[in-house]
Design goal:
- This protein is α+β, with helices and mostly antiparallel strands.
- It contains eight helices and four strands; from the N terminus they run E-H-E-H-E-E-H-H-H-H-H-H.
- It has helices at 11-23, 42-47, 66-77, 87-116, 125-145, 159-173, 182-192, 195-198, and strands at residues 2-6, 27-31, 55-58, 61-64.
- Helix 1 packs parallel to helix 3 (66-77), helix 4 runs antiparallel to helix 5 (125-145) and helix 4 runs parallel beside helix 6 (159-173).
- InterPro entries: Glutathione-S-Trfase_C-like, Glutathione-S-Trfase_C_sf, Glutathione_S-Trfase, Glutathione_S-Trfase_N, Thioredoxin-like_sf.
- Belongs to the GST superfamily.
- Pfam families: GST_C_2, GST_N_2.
- Residues 1-81 form the GST N-terminal domain.
Amino acid sequence: MLKIWGRPSSVNVQKVLWTVRELALPHTTEHVGGPFGGLDTPEYGKMNPNRKVPVIEDNGLVLWESNAIVRYLAARYNEGGLWPGDVAVRAQADRWMDWTATEWQSAMVPAFLGLIRTPEAQRNAAAIEASTKKTNQLGLILEDALQGREYIAGSHFSMGDIVLGCVAHRWLAMPIERPATPALSAWYRRLMMRPAAQGVLTLPLS
């Protein structure tokens, strides 16, 4: 049976949990990281030398890096669905997954840490402002990409929407001013109507 190590408040763990729920895969979860600890044990270090979450074990395969896990699960268990069968469509999903990791999610980190995990008196206002500005600019790139399409790779929901959707959820929930994004907001509402998403993106930011 598939096993997941992580904590449900982690955006990277949420990507994996959402994927697993979309695929209706039997699984168990062990809470580690954050308030649960456990990342500094020798056993965990053997699974993931970076000592981060998530990690999965599936049929003897131990895998870390959330986007790699989402790709693996989609390809193994849902080829033609979450893993698009058309290589050009799959490339679209892949591109936005990588963009999320290298651009949007990383730009969001200082604002998220400052506003959600740092006491107000200790916040770096300049860092939060710069992060918010960059994150909003990138959000407008996604807004433009979603013009005239239901999902990020076209007319069908894919692995790319899961990864983007988890980060979009965080962006939309942070206490910041955001530009108007009607296409992105409509896409996000479609994602949140999926039962698998509702079962994952329900916790307050922490």
